[in-house]
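Hi R.,

Here's the chain you asked about this morning:
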Amino acid sequence: MGREVAGQNQPSSLSYTVEQLIVVNPYNPDILPDLENYVNEQVSSQTYNLDANLCLLRLYQFEPERISTQIVARILVKALMAMPAPDFSLCLFLIPERVQMEEQFKTLIVLSHYLETARFRQFWDEAAKSRHIVEVVPGFEHAIQMYAIHVLSLTYQKVPRSVLAEAINIEGLSLDKFLEHQVSNYGWVIEKGHGRGQLITIPQNEFNHPALKKNTSDGVPLEHVTRIFPILG
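And here is the predicted structure, written out as tokens:
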């Protein structure tokens, strides 16, 4: 459960979690400070609540003079960490264009584009130049590495070591240690060989092995549709 806060216009002995507040009174600007504090709590505790963050961004639309660009940047970084979910686009839709034109937000938009197009070398190069933006959120590098592995697993049954190293931005002994962990815990197999030409076998899934593909119709998940309704309202 989220952090408890005092209920608005209620006796101080009555408290609500942030999750309850955004359900009971999502358009009350009085809860804005609680939602901002909750973003910082998500950062420090390495948790995530998209619905609360979208609620805060909607309140900023009604109270533009109260926008905290630091908080907005942290929301977007957390959204990047949630890929392949479309959270970044959902959040960006609620951010005024004048705010998006600030340098830190232009950088985050570029990073998002690199991830969406699987241009991982460019992503890591840009992220290295923008550490002051992304490294304020613990777990950022690991989350992006897990996303890169997800993307590779959609394409490869056997991925060259050099491709993996570039995608997750790890090389040398650090990559050896990472591979040992994946072999022990996730069923990866390292084929015999040395150097960058070594092949790593990724467990089969419905994307890299067509025979396992489930017979389901393509479509937008219902949960993504329902999230957009409050935005359009």
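One quick note: The first strand starts at residue 4 and ends at 6.

Cheers,
M.
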